[in-house]
What we know:
The protein is mainly alpha-helical. The protein has a single domain (10-275, 352-458), classed as Serine Threonine Protein Phosphatase 5, Tetratricopeptide repeat (Alpha Horseshoe). The protein has helices spanning 10-25, 40-45, 49-65, 76-83, 95-101, 110-135, 141-166, 177-181, 188-205, 220-233, 237-248, 284-289, 303-306, 314-318, 354-367, 371-384, 395-409, 416-423, 427-431, 449-454; strands at residues 87-89, 270-273, 299-301, 320-324, 329-333, 350-353. Strands 1-3 form a two-stranded antiparallel sheet. A two-stranded antiparallel ribbon has the order 2-6. A two-stranded antiparallel sheet has the order 4-5. The radius of gyration is 22 Å and the shape is globular.
Amino acid sequence: xxxxxxxxxxxxxxxxxxxxxxxxxxxxxxxxxxxxxxxxxxxxxxxxxxxxxxxxxxxxxxxxxxxxxxxxxxxxxxxxxxxxxxxxxxxxxxxxxxxxxxxxxxxxxxxxxxxxxxxxxxxxxxxxxxxxxxxxxxxxxxxxxxxxxxxxxxxxxxxxxxxxxxxxxxxxxxxxxxxxxxxxxxxxxxxxxxxxxxxxxxxxxxxxxxxxxxxxxxxxxxxxxxxxxxxxxxxxxxxxxxxxxxxxxxxxxxxxxxxxxxxxxxxxxxxxxxxxxxxxxxxxxxxxxxxxxxxxxxxxxxxxxxxxxxxxxxxxxxxxxxxxxxxxxxxxxxxxxxxxxxxxxxxxxxxxxxxxxxxxxxxxxxxxxxxxxxxxxxxxxxxxxxxxxxxxxxxxxxxxxxxxxxxxxxxxxxxxxxxxxxxxxxxxxxxxxxxxxxxxxxxxxxxxxxxxxxxxxxxxxxxxx
Length: 465
């Protein structure tokens, strides 16, 4: 477990300021970063556990506030909710979101460029931490293991979202600007293998314990959860089942029987969530989705999504809010219910929760022909949602039921819906009836045009752009 040093001294303050400079200078385009001009910086920063801890805290804060995983209008939940069939856009002032809603994203789109650059900037900052920690002579070995385990996890998480958005991408594992400025895209299968390698290493380095009770930094089980997801997406059913089973049998986590408890800060089924940053602050997600009068000022849940719920599903009544003007009724995601500050923080944006591991286990079991086991895991989630257990025995029908359950469980969470449609080859059949501009090539976003101009090795552009 990482040692948190409480006292401060002038040299540590200087190290922290130098560290912040390193992180801020990574906010240039990742293919255009100048060589470091002060080698002393790393020597100071990475000899002290407190400053390295601060570096990682900064990265998590960026992921929460500006990265693909943020709960705001530039995050995956909002962007891909409009891109698929979860959200309907009402605002006339969100031109960037309009392009996603219309499935008319362009290679010159600033939103796409921002997400590409912010992701690779954070990867660069994470690589800087990995290289600095590896070369440190002052850090205790247990601190090194914790820091490296977290950094490998972060690097994989960001690459996971990038490869599922853009397809073939560079896997950046160095701060060498010469290498990065001429990097080429790897085939997605190669990216997955690098993610697996990083996660296996991360899992071996991280402790099973959390650094604090709020579960805001990854432990061994969080790395295991992402590895289970990566194996699932890569159709390694045995690997996905093995990793998911480790977590489900660990006894560390437990599903909330009351689904209104799922998204609270102290939920027993949360594996990893973002620190709110300020005491009393709650989630960006609630600020993004909740509205109080109609028609919606920005977005609402789409009618065709609302119609997907089974009668009696507790998620319909408990995870959605309603607004009516007496004539029409609109629905909004109400998983996070607090859109104002409270005396103490009560809700934090969740990145990984136990329900996903049940459904990964169900899907992997179904793919392996273990129908009875798949039904057991699936029905745990259904029964928690006040739904009757399903009894289907046909594998194809069982898988469709699992995909439907994922749709209702993870709506507007980090792009799950889009990624599920894409990996199961169902995007076109599901979206073209309700999205007039949908084309088969929309399963990938375009590589930003400015990136192709800076580095021709990133060509060719994705099909359709």
